[in-house]
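> forwarded from #structure-qc
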């Protein structure tokens, strides 16, 4: 306003001069915003890549009138990803994140709506419930699961094979639509987890705890890239349909057997009682961590003919006995330390009974615990247990976004650990992602590591996205 002449009659030359001054000032403001945001070209390219892949999946399911859309589904999805990475867990918080960070989001994200539009809770919920569960799991597997340029973990450099673990996680705050009992949960998240790279490689949401083995059987065909890995799960999933898929695909397995399978369990115990000393291989190790001394002993023997071996246990070659003895260590008062607690577990395995297999089995049993750590991170950092949701598509979308963020942060966590020699907590990394430019930088680094199909995406947006009304960069 100070640049315009203060009189009623304004000629064209004065008006042109005044508008040029305003435009120069606006460009200077925008330049300072970009410098403060420190947005490199690769981050801008990454935002376009993520928008492209989100658009590719959302475009088939977005039933809104194209000309009337103010909030593109792919833009809302990317903002949800950045907001949840910064520690926001509610839809209301995502709307507040949108409004408070709108200026910097307009710099980072193409086709960001004008600030005069304040997004509502219902709009965010509509976008989150737009994708069917199978579409969300397919998008996660295609772009956020496997890295093509990943550094080989230190354990695999010692010629160990990868360990892929399966486990289910109940979402306690969820509930089912039309059910009066809150004991019937809305979903159980079944994850396929790479224990060596600390990364989720697939997931599926099922409704009942007893359906975990069906979810695992449906996940296995999509994991053919892990043909050389050792697959394992907890004892509740040692079921015939899972082993039939193992046998069909030729995957190596290591599965625990508990006393609930009485005939098989007793046959394995009897095989160890009758095993000859010459054919028995074993190894022991002792660890001191978290105030406990734990001694582990792994013993393997060749597998005899087991009950049911004619069908789903026909590839079992080795039986495993895993013994642990755990004792607490109290430095202040050693006399009050509890007595050692012993535990024995039995496994069936398709690997041959050799010394190399013994070392691989010992490594796989040790690393299997990392999937439980992954569940704890989702519950304590991402607050997945507090998702009070009943809609199946909404619940699967929130679980999918949590898995995406876990993989992105886990990749950087392992990278920081290698560079600085120390482990960073997930809580600290979430705090680092408080600002949108930092969160998008993490996403850019993850895609730079070779996320599948990311390198073949175009640098520009598709025509359907370009058709959305956009505003000049300096219209503020």
């Amino acid at each position: 306003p100070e640049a315009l002449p203060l009189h009623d009659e304004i000629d064209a030359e004065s008006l042109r001069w005044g508008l040029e001054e305003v435009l120069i000032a606006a460009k200077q403001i925008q330049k300072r915003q970009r410098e403060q945001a420190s947005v490199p070209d690769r981050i801008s390219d990454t935002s376009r890549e993520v928008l492209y892949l989100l658009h590719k999946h959302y475009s088939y399911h977005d039933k809104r009138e194209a000309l009337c859309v103010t909030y593109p589904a792919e833009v809302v999805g990317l903002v949800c990803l950045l907001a949840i990475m910064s520690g926001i867990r509610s839809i209301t918080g995502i709307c507040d994140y949108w409004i408070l960070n709108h200026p910097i989001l307009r710099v980072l994200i193409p086709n960001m709506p004008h600030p005069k539009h304040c997004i509502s809770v219902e709009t965010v919920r509509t976008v989150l419930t737009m994708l069917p569960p199978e579409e969300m799991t397919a998008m996660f597997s295609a772009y956020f699961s496997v890295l093509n340029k990943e550094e080989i973990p230190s354990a695999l450099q010692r010629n160990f094979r990868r360990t892929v673990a399966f486990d289910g996680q109940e979402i306690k705050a969820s509930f089912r639509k039309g059910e009066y009992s809150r004991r019937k949960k809305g979903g159980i998240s079944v994850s396929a987890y790479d224990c060596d790279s600390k990364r989720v490689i697939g997931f599926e949401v099922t409704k009942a705890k007893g359906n975990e083995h069906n979810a695992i059987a449906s996940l296995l065909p999509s994991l053919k890239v892990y043909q050389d890995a050792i697959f394992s799960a907890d004892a509740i999933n040692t079921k015939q349909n899972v082993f039939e898929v193992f046998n069909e695909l030729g995957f190596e397995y290591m599965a625990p057997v508990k006393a609930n399978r009485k005939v098989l369990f007793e046959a394995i115990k009897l095989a160890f009682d009758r095993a000859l000393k010459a054919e028995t291989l074993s190894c022991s190790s002792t660890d001191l961590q978290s105030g406990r001394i734990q001694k582990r002993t792994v013993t393997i023997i060749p597998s005899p003919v087991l009950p049911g071996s004619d069908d789903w246990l026909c590839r079992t070659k080795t039986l495993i006995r895993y013994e642990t003895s755990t004792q607490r260590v109290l430095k202040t008062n050693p006399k009050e330390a509890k007595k050692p607690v012993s535990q024995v577990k039995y496994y069936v395995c398709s690997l041959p009974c050799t010394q190399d297999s013994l070392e691989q089995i010992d490594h796989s049993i040790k690393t299997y615990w990392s999937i439980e750590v992954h569940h704890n991170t989702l519950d304590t950092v991402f607050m997945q247990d507090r998702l009070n949701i009943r809609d199946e598509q909404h619940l699967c979308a929130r679980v999918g976004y949590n898995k995406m963020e876990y993989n992105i942060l886990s990749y950087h966590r392992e990278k920081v650990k290698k560079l600085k020699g120390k482990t960073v907590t997930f809580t600290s990394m979430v705090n680092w992602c408080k600002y949108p430019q930092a969160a998008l930088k993490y996403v850019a680094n993850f895609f730079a590591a070779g996320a599948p199909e990311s390198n073949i995406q175009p640098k520009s947006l598709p025509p359907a996205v370009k058709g959305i009304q956009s505003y000049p960069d300096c219209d503020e």
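QC bot note: Residues 128 and 394 are 6 Å apart (CA to CA). The longest strand covers residues 292-302.
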